[in-house]
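Usage example:
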Amino acid sequence: MKYEHCIRCTICVENCPVFRVNPEFPGPKQSGPDAQRFRSDGKKSVDDWVLLCSQCKRCEMACPCGVEPAQIILRAQQKYGLEHPHTAAHLLFANNYYLSTLGSMTAPLANRVAATKIGKKIFQRLGIATYIPFPKFSFKTLRQEKKTRNREVRKVAFFYGCFINFYRPDIGRKIIQILQSLRIDVVLPSQWCCGLPALGNGNLALARSFAAKNVASLSNYIDAGYDVVYTCTSCGLCLLHDYQGIMEIPGAKKIAENSYNVHEYVLKLIAEQEIKPAFKEVNRTLAYHIPCHLRALEIGYPAANLLRLIPSLQCRILDDACCGLNGSYGFKKINEATALQLGGRAVSLIKKTGAEAIVADCGSCRMQLSGLSGMEAFDPAEIIYESLGIKV
Amino acid sequence: MSVIEYDVIVIGAGVAGLTAGTLLAGQGLNVALVTAGEPTACLSTGCVDVCSQNENPLQGIANLPDLHPFHLVSSETILQALTDFQQVMTDMNIPYTGTLEKNRQVISAIGTFKTTCLTPLTMESSPQSIDEKIQIVTFTGLKDFYPSYIISRLQNASFSTYDARVSTTMGIAAKFEDDAFLEAFISWLENLNISADKIAVPAVLGLESATAIMKRIASRLKRPVFEIPTIPPSMPGRRLFNALKDHFRSKGGVIYWGWPVVGVEKAGRLIEAVTAESRGRPNSLNARAFVLATGSFVGGGLHAERDTIVEPVFGLPVHVPSQREGWFDQDYFSANHGIGQAGIMVDTSFRAVGCPWDNIFVCGAILAHTEALKNGCGHGFAMTTGHAAARSCLEYLQ
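Running the assembly step on the lines above writes:
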């Protein structure tokens, strides 16, 4: 929130994916630091274009002066959200956690309905885009996984996040098995939505209520000697940055200090010579699409560093393009055109590399990129799992 | 604290840092590059200025004041650095034209001539005199591009306006990547029945495929087409940065974005690690050697306080030209602001003079006495000193 430090250099504008393709959005400089001086608490927001910002945070990564345009816009979005009625799509996506809980419980039915023409019509009525299929709910969530403890020296509490839990628990199980094979004890603490979808849909109060519950739960594990690991880069960003920042959750600092990206954690243990994973050959040529929120975590690209240790794996890093989906952003009808154009560019850059498959840490990036390209998209953990040759 | 071990850590992602990093990574070293934000190179015209004081850049360098850091490198090193650069850019599909024997002119968005050494191929046909016959094409609503200024200076130029339905350089560049848009643009140009010898457009011909787009328009219109660099957001600057960055990665280099260095760990005459304050916990990166390429004031490499100037990463001794009264010339647009001489003084090994550590190598615009604006020592200076600092670093590590 240091808008006075802006020197108007426009590097943020150069990095804004939405500004590239949507002329309605005036870009991070204008909607961030420039407009900030005209916003005041007493006056109602008139800048509805702040809602067009996808919160990819690329502007913040580019700024050489430490201004945080996305953060300024995020706060303007919350202010706007408080003052204006929310659309159906905003309300639904803010409450994604509850909807997904319901969706998973009724998965066989919910998935079938969502895939029908009527289902799609309902989505469209609600202002939800259907250019890629809605992800399939998993009937058995990760939360129901049986707990195993081997009393290893290292123990972690796994914050798996909604995407893994409700849609891809299989990836969650692989991550657990990777960690266990490296002699790390894994527990699944009680957890709720990280709060990012609520924040992204202008619902700070709901986001804070999720966050407070997570902080209380994770805090107990940290006190008992656990490190927290997360896999979803957006959950991670929320845990590390937003709990302490815009949400102002008491105790958030402790969570931030003790939470690790799962690959960052493995790298750390390798560097400390506690573990020596035996990576076996993987004969694949991959394009590693770096999720915007992984960049924003400011931890480098830990999974890429791990993949480099895998013999014969070819992996090209691509971090210039946003996939365009941005969680629930691209699923909203008003952002559909933006999401499609950005996705198209990301896919064309991937195809230029000649890769046979995509790898990305973020579930929504994978959904978008495989949906638009027809290529397979893996979580890096799936490749590491393959390389470690884990037998269950 | 996360600890990772590298051979070399480069601080700064500009032309100097990326050149040094690529050279070191190309020698099989494990190199990481850390950067607070994106470099000022993104805001540049993409042109490589070596020394604009003379028609012949090498002669210009020979005439520079004795303390100028260009005198620390041989003309062979300069040639090597520029040749390597041109080869890399050709491989990365944004070829550069020009030679170290003779400077070129590029016309600017207000119709003035800018002296430079190497230019992107998309600017190769930029006029070298004021009487060439040129048809300028601009875009409806495009700000910060002034064809009428250009026409006031070029006797035989005129302009037409195309409606791209968007009015920003970024937005138009994105549209040019779309085949249907490019085709419609070309048909419109064909219908203009242009009689001029050359066609000029602001630098918006795409981001990834600029050279191919320029060539396609030129072959259809049967005459040269060239780009006129705009003020930021600048597509040619971004193309240059993207290409250097991709090349660094292709040599095995690793980049940490949003990683402002806030602390260093020292042991005797060595720096052992640099630390960044990420919002979770401090992140530390260990290395055997460090290359400092954080740029000048705008890039954040130098920071001016009331009466002194500091180098914020290692706290290296900074050459401060005079008392504050002497930092600025009376004329705002003067090239003789004293503060242009501020920076780090280095010896022939590119170690800072008076630096208590043996494993820091300094290059690029942060060097004292560069006076980039006055001497026209831009990217060419950055890549040359980046090259030389990397060689010195390599020698140290071996």
